[in-house]
Design a protein that fits this description.
Keywords: Hydrolase. It is an enzyme of class 3 (hydrolase). It comes from Buttiauxella brennerae ATCC 51605. Its EC number is 3.1.21.-. One of its GO terms (molecular function) is endonuclease activity. With about 240 residues, the protein is α+β, with helices and mostly antiparallel strands. The chain has two domains: about 110 residues, no CATH class; about 60 residues, His-Me finger endonuclease fold (3-Layer(aba) Sandwich), CATH 3.40.1800. The protein has a three-stranded antiparallel beta sheet. The structure holds zinc ion (ZN) (2 copies).
């Protein structure tokens, strides 16, 4: 029987794009910049000359990575049986690549848009999908279900992972806003019990999409603008420049 020739790789025993993820996980505790990984790999392989950043991006769920043929295949990151699921390993936040965790970073998908361009997006929650399906039912059917359904909501225990936000960023941005929404410029809609104006600090690039928890990436918004930023279209630019 013929023995399959052993594949050789430029660096180590496996493709370098797999090694780069391992370095993030094992050498840097799950989060590293491309420069850090680059330095490490150059120390590991004397002849190392490769694009570390691209080797990271190929595995990153919230980056445009359709340059690679195996990312030109529609899939969700929660489909662990997909043959290319192994490339859904990282999440990019600012300059840092962290090990991707669906419970923390959400479920993402690769899909083709109407112009056949390969794109990525966060998958909507099961609840949002259920609301849409319920809205599409004929009214009589929906009425029937509403009547039959128990009015006492079921209790369920969930584990949520949340980003630990800096109270310094929130305090600093609220002080700079000085009681006015930094988008529509209107006064806060009401004052809180303690007499301070009610505004909400929002991240221009969402934390869940990789944004940084910094003063520059934060903006104080009135509740209307805030909801619009999340559910409508609202163009937001940095107003809180770090000095
Ligand atoms: Zn506003
Ligand atoms: Zn927000």
């Amino acid at each position: 029987m013929a023995v399959k020739p052993k594949r050789t790789y430029k660096y180590g025993e496996q493709p370098i794009r797999i090694t780069t993820v391992q370095v993030v996980a094992e050498q840097f505790g799950g989060a590293a910049t491309a420069n850090q990984v680059d330095d490490y790999l150059r120390g590991l392989f004397p002849h190392y000359k490769d694009d570390t950043r691209l080797n990271l991006i190929v595995n990153t769920v919230n980056c445009n990575r359709s340059y690679w043929s195996f990312n030109k295949t529609a899939r969700r990151t929660d489909d662990v049986t997909h043959r290319h699921n192994q490339y859904d390993r990282l999440f990019k936040r600012g300059n840092t690549f962290e090990i991707y965790q669906p419970s923390m970073h959400g479920v993402w998908e690769l899909y083709q848009d109407l112009q056949d361009k390969w794109c990525y997006r966060q998958v909507r929650s099961q609840f949002e999908e259920a609301v849409e399906a319920a809205a599409k039912l004929p009214p009589s059917e929906r009425k029937q279900i509403l009547e039959a359904e128990s009015k006492t909501p079921e209790l369920t225990v969930v584990t949520t992972r949340v980003y630990k936000r800096s109270p310094y960023v929130v305090a600093e941005v609220l002080l700079r806003a000085n009681g006015k929404c930094q988008s529509c410029k209107h006064d806060a809609p009401f004052v809180k019990e303690d007499g301070t104006p009610f505004l909400e600090v929002h991240h221009i690039e969402w934390l869940s999409k990789g944004g940084e928890d910094s003063v520059e990436n934060a903006i104080a918004l009135c509740p209307n603008c805030h909801r619009q930023a999340h559910y409508g279209v609202l163009e937001l630019v940095t107003v809180n420049k770090q000095d």
